[in-house]
Amino acid sequence: MVEVFKTTVDNHVQAFRLLEAIHRAFPGCSANFDLDDCDRILRVVSHSSQVNTCAVIHLTLSQGCFAEVLNDELQPAEVNPSLQKT
């Protein structure tokens, strides 16, 4: 299971500390950041069960950052390009 979060993490030191905390708190998970994305994406992958999104958000808050689940919503044109207006 993969969960994607929008965060306020804005530097590599902060990201590294948060990743260490996530890996300690959730040993069955792996996580990574994409700080080049405008939403400063945090991806958490659980290899054995669902990702506990509330716990990840709480942990992020305890590290002085904000995170929220980024919904995977596709626009109609992304689902079916023929729906795209010209």
Throw out a few tags for this protein.
86 residues, alpha+beta, Alpha-Beta Plaits, 4-stranded antiparallel β-sheet, 3 helices, 4 strands, globular
Description of the molecule:
This protein has a single domain (2-83), classed as Alpha-Beta Plaits, CATH 3.30.70.100. The protein contains three helices and four strands; from the N terminus they run E-H-E-E-H-E-H. It has helices spanning 12-25, 53-62, 76-79; strands at residues 2-7, 29-34, 41-46, 67-69. Strands 2-3-1-4 form a four-stranded antiparallel β-sheet, covered by helices on one side. The chain is globular, with a radius of gyration of 15 Å.
Uncertain runs are: none
Mean pLDDT: 88
Distance between the termini: 37 Å
Task: Count helical runs.
Answer: 3
Number of strands: 4
In which order are the strands of the major sheet placed?
A: 2-3-1-4
What's the order of the H and E elements?
EHEEHEH
How much of the sequence lies in strands comes to 15-25%
Structural topology:
Elements: E1 2-7, H1 12-25, E2 29-34, E3 41-46, H2 53-62, E4 67-69, H3 76-79
Antiparallel strand pairs: 1-3, 1-4, 2-3
